[in-house]
Amino acid sequence: MKLTPQSKQENAIHPEEEKGVTIANGRAGELVLRQAAYIQAASSDNTRRTYQSAVRHFLKWGGVLPASENQLRNYLLAHAEQLNPRTLALRLTALSQWHHHQGFADPTAHSGLRKLLTGIQRVSGKPKKKAKALELEQLEVLVTYLDSRDELSARRDSALLQLGFFGGFRRSELVSLRVEHIQWEKAGIRILLPRSKTDQSGEGISKAIPYGEHICCAARALKVWLAAAGITQGLIFRGINQWQQVAEAGLHPASMNTILKKHAGNCGLGETTGFSSHSLRRGMATSAYRAGASFRDIKRQGGWRFDGTVHGYIEEADLFEENAMMSLLSLSAAGKTERKK
Q1: Are 174 and 257 in contact (CB under 8 A)?
Q2: 216, 186, 225: which is closest to 280 by C-alpha?
Q3: In Å, what is the CA distance from 90 to each residue of 178, 254, 298?
Q4: Where is this region: Disordered (predicted)?
Q5: CATH topology for the 45-124 domain
Q6: Which neighbouring-strand residues pair with 196?
Q7: What are phi and psi of 192, to 5 degrees?
Q8: Could you tell me which residues come within 8 angstroms of residue 12 by beta carbon, excluding any fewer than 6 positions away?
Q9: Which CATH number fits domain 136-317: 1.25.40.10, 1.10.443.10, 1.10.40.60, 1.20.1440.230?
Q10: What angle do CA 114, 46, 133 make, to 5 degrees?
Q11: Separation of alpha carbons 186 and 225, rounded Å
């Protein structure tokens, strides 16, 4: 039907109506963006980066998304002798999440794939690499060494390592600490973490670090660093350039490993390859347990979610102290002494 001039006028959209449609579309677009932001916030940055890396690896190998069970089987077989089975399991999880979020059937749910992965784990499984615990005595050596150096970076690193140890912080938590998170009290410092790995909802975790009376004192080291760097607000641990100027940007989490290994090597702590930022948390747990701290207090200070993680650290601390063979060896020694009489 051909429209007459009158009908065209009747069907035309009034400027005010057109404006209303534009506003409505704009609001809808804003809601879509807000929804995407909230969905993205549901996963931590580290988890998101790990999953994205896994998906990229699959695509680079030649995979296609959405994937088929047969593709994933070939992917596992191609990397069974190259990658750690735990890495393969993580990549399967990442691909599973991709399919769920995109609304596709999950090819990783097939029992045959899971059975194949179990077989790879039994044949190629290796012990999980664990960071070497930095014990309190070793931390004291580090602090003594850093205190002897007249460098701005030494002040920073002493505070960094001591806070990491006595606060049981993860490296991501440590480098994101801000002056505003610190509350100075008579007995020490109270630190409020707005968010952490075990507090994704942002309720906040509070940690207290008492003043030390001997070589180590995280609160004192922090005060010295802040005064030397002239930091009164914002990020606490920042980069320092060759002209000893303090940057606005904070340290990268990965720099923790470099800092610890460098100083451990310089002050003669022996082989440093086993040290990493996690050595501070492990060292706090094992040293505190040996000093008589309770399981509850150790778990709370480290912010661990699962009891099993803490039990693992404690058991390692007890490998020799609470060893069934010690009773046998003591009995054997006592028997030899008795026979000599």
Answers
A1: no
A2: 216
A3: 33, 21, 29
A4: 1-21
A5: DNA polymerase; domain 1 (1.10.150)
A6: 199
A7: -105, 115
A8: none
A9: 1.10.443.10
A10: 90
A11: 19
Give pLDDT, residue 244.
86
Q: What does the alpha-carbon distance between residue 231 and residue 158 come to, in Å, rounded to a whole number?
A: 16
Structure tokens at 26: 């704009």
Which residue matches tokens 């609160």? Answer: 219
Quick: pLDDT tens for 64-105.
999 999 999 999 999 998 888 889 999 999 999 999 989 999
Q: Where are the domains of the chain?
A: 45-124, 136-317
Which residue matches tokens 């609470």?
A: 322
Identify the three-state secondary structure at position 250.
strand
Place of tokens 């609001």: 27
Query: What pLDDT shows up at residue 201?
Result: 52
Tokens at 88, concatenated: 């393969």
Which residue bears the tokens 């606060």?
A: 167
Torsion angle defined by CA atoms of residues 138, 169, 292 and 260, in that order, rounded to the nearest 10 degrees: -10
Spatial CB neighbours of 326, under 8 Å, sequence gap ≥ 6? 320
What single-letter amino acid sits at 198?
T
Query: pLDDT averaged over the chain?
Result: 83
Q: Taking the model in full, what pTM does it have? A: 0.67
Single out the residue of 76, 35, 38 nearest to residue 54, CA to CA.
76
- What does pLDDT average to in each consecutive run of 10 residues of the chain (341 residues)? 47 51 58 57 69 93 94 93 89 93 91 90 74 90 95 96 95 93 95 68 78 92 96 95 90 93 90 87 91 91 86 70 65 56 56
Q: Classify the C-alpha dihedral 314-317-319-323 as positive or negative.
A: negative
